[in-house]
Each structure stands twice: as structure tokens, then as C-alpha cells.
Amino acid sequence: MKKIVIFLALGALITSCGEKKEEKKDGFEVSRTKTEDTKAETKESVPVDLDNKGVGPITNVEFPEEINDEMVARGKAKFDAICVACHMIDKRMIGPALKGVYDRRSPEWVMNMILNPDGMLKEDPIAKALLKEYNNAIMLNQNLTEDEARDIAEYLRTL
């Protein structure tokens, strides 16, 4: 009896793996393949606004001409620990690519987004537009200090 069941199961398996014949039907066909535009990966449709300082505790950030390597090292370590879950340097992910962020946003805006994402998403027009563009994926508040946010801001200058 066991041999008959095994034989029938094996036969069913073999016949189910046979070639399927598909009929060509009149009408249209939808292709679900994604076309990629490599230039679009780092571009965003949200407008550039270097005058917007955002909503939060930071009202003025002055970057010195020279990069502070100690701050960069601390900022990179913090970025690698918490930011890479959603952000890549030069590709869109859950959040925007951060390479060249200061060409699109003011340093104050960036630091306020790091320190006060909840307030920014509620009140800032650029943050609201980014939220919409990134499928309502909210940026979580990491409860960083201003010094930690400044270290990350310094690191972002080097990208």
C-alpha cells in the first residue's frame, strides 16, 4: 500500500512539473518590471530651500571653514549606529540620501530634523513634503543631545 501511495505522489509531482502552454489573449499586458533611473536615486522632488531653518531648538549653525576630524569621527560612529537603518550616503532608502544634504537644506534645518523630527513633521513644510515623498515613513526621535547632532552634522559635511 505504501508503494502505491509513493508511486502516485511521485507521478503527481512529475506531471505537475510539466511545461505549461499559455494561450495568447487579445488585450493589454501589464509589466511589473521596474525601470531604474540612476540619476533619480539621489534626486528628490521636494524643492531645495536653504533659507528654511526648520522647527526646533537650533536657530543658528556656523560651520567653520576647516572640518573638525574629532567631531567627524564621533558623528560617523553615531551615524553608523542609528542612521544607516534608514539612510544611505548616496542612494534613496527608507529616507533620503544624505550626500550633498547641505546643497538642499540649511545646517539648522538638518540639526532640527535630527533633534526634533516630531515637531518638524508636524509643522515644517519641507519635512511634510519629504514624509509624503517617502511613503509616510516617519523619522524616529533618537533623543540625541545637541552635541551628538552637531557631530552628525559635521560628518555630513564630509560626504
SSE topology:
Layout: H1 2-16, H2 69-83, H3 107-115, H4 117-123, H5 125-133, H6 146-157
Helix pairs in contact: 2-6, 3-4, 3-6, 4-5
Distance between the termini: 70 Å
Q: Helix- and strand-based class?
A: mainly alpha
Largest sheet geometry? none
What Rg is obtained from the alpha carbons, in whole angstroms?
A: 25 Å
Q: Mean of the pLDDT scores?
A: 82
Supply the number of helical segments: 6
| Net shape | globular
Q: How would you explain this protein's 3D organization?
A:
With 159 residues, this protein is mostly helical. It has six helices and no strands. α2 packs across α6 (146-157) and α3 packs across α4. It is globular, with a radius of gyration of 25 Å.
Brief rundown of the structure:
The protein is mainly α. The protein has 6 helices and no strands.
Features:
mainly alpha; globular
